[in-house]
Design a protein that fits this description.
The structure is a single chain. Helix content is 25%, strand content 29%. By secondary structure, it is of the alpha+beta class. The strands form three sheets. The protein has a 15-stranded mixed β-sheet that branches. Strand 21 and strand 22 form a beta hairpin. Helix 4 runs parallel beside helix 8. The protein binds the ligand CCCCCCCCCCCCC/C=C/[C@@H](O)[C@H](COP(=O)(O)O)NC(C)=O, adenosine-5'-diphosphate (ADP) and calcium ion (CA). One of its GO terms (molecular function) is ceramide kinase activity.
Length: 572
């Protein structure tokens, strides 16, 4: 096969203007040639001259010499030659072209590329260049294709799971109308499974799927569906490597396949916090360009028995109660969380228990930082390396808290809590764009443990509302936050091993008591844990963070200085 040059430059026609079009292996650039200088090079290409430095991302500008655009080759989705025969056809696109141009420049190719739109959205744009000669047109197509083929991080074959009942039950339609056409455009082949029941995707991944043939797994659904994929992939990887998930101390083996999330759920917090928006087209484009974002995963155990993994929120008290209540209202769709949230806020239950945790003192960053985890995050890179070197788990003690004790580097806090939340990442979502722990990191090997102690309804409301404003939700006397590597929780009235199953017995018991005593303002002894949108069957749990156990087709939220909220920490 003829070797294609890496550098290519020609004068080509775009709409009704001539452009200097060049490709240098990194960027495709087209720059308008001022009208009076318009001429046709007749397809001669010449060595590319780099006279100025292009910015990293696609950019459009208008200088004295006309508009100029540049697109990173890594963000080109596809290139296709326009069929010469079709050019004579009477289709709308060609009708808009002046007759003279189409006749004079009968060969054309179209480049589809990523364009950045508002609020972290990505869109697919097309640009069509017209040439005088077929050979030149083909050379452009071949050269661009060659450079795309050299991008080894791009997936070619994907396994797709669709939850048809997630969110507003639009999963199938979203995939077919918005995502599949983009995959086809980028020559990605897929095997699609529409799930027939809960845990279908998890069990298929864990036992049946022939994973070797795929470059990634895509889930179309919400956080619960993503959680299924994580459980399937992580369990499969541990089984294949002979690792016992039941041992809380075991170091888990990272998964090699990346996971893509096409948001079609109710909260979509994992998608939102890793891409910056819950938008199916944006997510599809991140998959196509082959992005990779490592992520921490928490393992949750009860008495040395594995319960579940968590990637976003582990919440006891408020968020556990919201989830437990909302599960009975699935028919409401995403609005069930607003309804149950309001109801749970009014019940204002607190729960007694002991939280012990191993602070992550040997890392960069704290939960009160003003800096945020963003694309290319330095803290995640730094702490990730720290963990990969098997750093010893020795932590300094902090002598500053009256009701806490130290036990071998662990801190122990007993109290009455309205909420205990562990956020392994910010948990930003459309309801709270800054999230439960705005400074948490996606891949630093820690989780932010937020303890909200018993306080008045008014104060709790202030705390909740601060999740939706620029004010610091941790800057309140009844709230504390710790960046930890492990933690345990034991409810005060903890039962022995043959402990009651919370869902079956505990809830019934306490709701019964309260129904029998409607005037009683006491709180039930147990809440439940909300683990990425699933209820855990036990209240007493042990949690450990596994640094960068999985990878997503994402890159973290890209900086957008214009939209950045430089929060003023003044309290209301
Ligand atoms: C009175 C105003 C209150 C505003 C409080 C806003 C805080 C919102 C923070 C939400 C953090 C959600 C973390 C993600 C949890 C998901 O895993 C879970 C399951 O999501 P899914 O149904 O699978 O999409 N959703 C919920 C609400 O528990
Ligand atoms: N075909 C199916 N039928 C019923 N439940 C399913 C199906 N596929 C997946 N699920 C379950 O639906 C739950 C919610 O899915 P998810 O996609 O997260 O939507 P939502 O964000 O609305 O909760 C998940 O726990 C998942 O296990
Ligand atoms: Ca983390």
């Amino acid at each position: 096969m003829e070797k294609q040059p890496r550098l290519l430059a020609s004068q080509l026609l775009l709409k009704n203007s001539f452009f200097e079009v060049s490709l240098n292996g990194v960027l495709l650039t087209w720059k308008e040639i001022p009208t009076k200088k318009k001429r046709v090079s007749g397809g001669i290409h010449y060595p590319f001259k780099v006279g100025f430095c292009f910015p990293k991302f696609h950019r459009r500008g208008k200088g004295e010499s006309g508009t100029s655009h540049s697109v990173s080759v890594s963000e080109i989705l596809a290139v296709r030659e326009l069929d010469v025969d079709s050019k004579t056809k009477d289709d709308g696109r060609w009708q808009k072209m002046p007759q003279k141009s189409t006749e004079a420049y009968p060969y054309a190719f179209t480049v589809s590329y990523v364009e950045r739109a508002w609020q972290h959205r990505w869109r697919c744009s097309d640009v069509t260049f017209h040439c005088l000669e077929g050979a030149l047109c083909q050379q452009w197509v071949q050269t661009i294709r060659g450079q795309l083929a050299a991008l080894t991080s791009r997936p070619k074959h994907l396994l797709v799971y669709i939850n048809p009942y997630g969110g507003k039950q639009q999963g199938k339609c979203i995939y077919e109308q918005k995502v599949a056409p983009l995959f086809t455009c980028a020559s990605i082949s897929t095997d699609v499974i529409v799930t027939e029941h809960a845990n279908h995707a998890r069990d298929h991944l864990r036992t049946e799927a022939e994973l070797k043939q795929y470059d990634g797994v895509v889930c179309v659904g919400g956080d619960g569906m993503f959680s299924e994929i994580v459980h399937g992939l992580v369990s499969r990887t541990q089984r294949d490597n002979g690792v016992d998930q039941n041992s809380p101390e075991e170091k888990l083996v990272p998964c090699t396949l990346r996971i893509g999330i096409i948001p079609a759920g109710s909260t979509d917090c994992i998608c939102y916090a890793t891409v910056g928006i819950n938008d199916p087209v944006t997510s599809a484009l991140h998959i196509i360009v082959g992005d990779a974002q490592p992520m921490d995963v928490c393992s949750v155990h009860h008495n040395n028995t594995f319960l579940r993994y968590s990637v976003s929120l582990l919440g006891y008290g408020f968020y556990g109660d919201v989830l437990a209540d909302s599960e009975r209202k699935r028919w409401m769709g995403p609005a069930r969380y607003d309804f149950s949230g309001f109801k749970t806020f009014l019940t204002h239950h607190y729960y007694e228990g002991t939280v012990s945790f191993l602070p992550a003192t040997d890392i960069l960053g704290t939960p009160r930082d003003k800096t945020r985890c963003r694309a290319g995050c330095f803290i995640c890179q730094h702490n990730g390396q720290l963990y990969s070197e098997d750093a010893p788990e020795i932590c300094k003690t902090d002598p500053d808290v009256s009701d806490s004790e130290y036990e071998g580097g662990w801190r122990v806090i007993r109290g009455k809590f309205l909420a205990i939340n562990a956020a392994s990442m910010s948990c930003a979502c459309p309801r709270s764009p800054k999230g439960l722990s705005p400074a948490a990191h996606l891949a630093d090997g820690t989780t932010d443990l937020i303890l909200v102690r018993k306080c008045s309804r008014f104060n709790f409301l202030r705390h909740l509302l601060r999740h939706t404003s620029k004010y610091d939700q941790f800057d309140m006397t009844f709230v504390e936050v710790h960046r930890v590597r492990r933690f345990h929780f034991t409810p005060r009235h903890c039962q022995s091993d043959s402990e009651l199953d919370l869902r079956e017995n505990g809830k019934r018991l306490f709701s019964q008591i309260c129904r029998d005593h409607p005037a009683c303002s006491c709180s039930p002894a147990y809440s439940s844990w909300n683990c990425d949108g699933e209820i855990l069957p036990h209240a007493a749990i042990e949690v450990g963070v596994h640094c960068q156990l999985i990878k997503l087709f994402a890159r973290g939220i890209e900086e957008q200085p214009v939209f950045e909220d430089l929060a003023n920490p003044c309290a209301i």
